[in-house]
Amino acid sequence: MPNYQAAPSGHAISRRIADLLEDIDPIQYSGSSRARRVRNINDHIQGRNDMPLGPLLDWAAQVDGGGYAGRVTEIRQMIQMLQAQKSLMDQPYPLPYTLESPYQKYTDDPLNPIKIIDQPLFDQTAKAGFPRDFFRCSYFEGVNIYCMPDGADCASSTFYHCNFTACRIRRTMFPQVTMQDCGFDSCALQEAIFHAASISNTHFTDSTLRSITFQEARLKSCLTVDCTLEGVDFFHTRLDGCTYGRIQAADIMNLPYAKITQGGATEVECARNRAGIFRALGVEDPERIAMRRRAPGSGR
Question: Residue 105's pLDDT is what?
Answer without folding.
Answer: 74
